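Fold this sequence, please.
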Amino acid sequence: MLILARYVIREHIGPFFFALALLTSMLVLNFVLQAMRYIIGKGIEWGIIFEFIAYNLAGILVLVIPMSILIATIMSFGRLSSDNEVTAIKAGGIPFLKLLWPVILAAIVLTYGVFWFNDQLLPVANHRARVLKKNIQTKRPTLSIEPGVFLEDIENFTMIIENKDEIENELFGITIFDKSDRSAFRTITANRGTIEIDEARESMILNLKQGELHEFKPGKPDTYEKVKFEQYKVIIPVENMSLKKNDENFRNDREKNITQLMEEVVRYLKEKERQQNSLLENIKKSPQAVTVLDSKFKNLIYHHLVPGNFIDKVNEGFININLKRVSDTLKFTRPQLNDTLLRAVLGFLKDSANSIKDSVKIILTPSANLMTSNLNTISSYQRLTDQCMVEVNKKYSIPMACIIFVLLGAPIGVKTRKGNLGIAGGISLFFFIAYYFWLILGEDLADRQLLNPFIAMWFMNILLGAIGIYLIFQTTTEKKLRHLFNPTGKS
């Protein structure tokens, strides 16, 4: 069996690294083409450019590795099937699952590696990529001079040109409005000129030829000066002429590891718990006040105080598992009213829903005002918690796609009986688009509190995993799923 396992793994190595190199190259090329618009013309060293690409390569690899596994699995099992090796192995008494286990074990190893990379290295790379991009974008902002467009991002200077020769670095039809001297209006025109960059003094030097200088002083209306010149030099100070690397301390959610994200969750949960306790006290004092709340706040009471469904409990359990990284005592709890008060509140809500329409203007009582304030604050902290938990779930779900895609790709490869890149790439592309489309959509829905963070990030894993298990069952038993419930085939 060890020989068979080595043979199956060896079949996957070549297609995996080929797909990994091909997909990575395509996505890096696409990224470079997009990044060129704020890199070209700024005189940035090649080392800085390669550093910027390397930081962004980290995020590309996290997405590409699962897809490469899917392509490699479809190609490998497709070739084994097309050469009738799968049939021969099964005829020799070796079940299909024994062919699959070596690949699943390899996928588990890769899953752990991708998870560690996703949690420890990717946040650092994302942070440095964002800071470096910001520094690159602010370097030499004045070099984006376009004919017929006023350049107004230079302090105290406005400039427009008629044409330019990028090869010779020469400008034509130059007009400069100099506002550096508050006591005088100065306008400089020139037929042509060139630009020099002095990075040491952080300035732009314009060598103008064949032009005129016009100066008017508002304090002396009778004074107007006009000077013609053959050559004239204008020195314009420019900030950020050279690239300055700044190490910002601020990190967004994508620049934090799981521990850092859960520390934020702890802070939000403590504030949320304080507001929830205040809400409970206000309801206990005046439960009938909930009748004058509008539909939005009534729904929030249902959401935060009524016992959750199975999916909510799964999400809360996942939060508690990750809370152990930062606290052994703190747990996510859904505060609930006692049964008697809960029934009373729900009764008030039901009666008010039947008697009061949303279109009717509602006058809030002082107790209701306190409740709305509590509910608004609770909802805000819940949204911040959900946004953090989306990132935490994503750090688990994307690596798990390595295993899911093996379960999906192996039976598809056997059924297609094709081991070429075209078939494997086409099928993989379909699942790849579906997977990452849902990932983006689910993240947006969860951030807007329209979907549970756990479901938002795990739905496609669950769906594709179920499809893969069903296809494996078909491939292994050569039966339809209905045979599980009707093994005799009788109607």
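The longest strand covers residues 185-198. Residues 354-363 have pLDDT under 50 and may be disordered.
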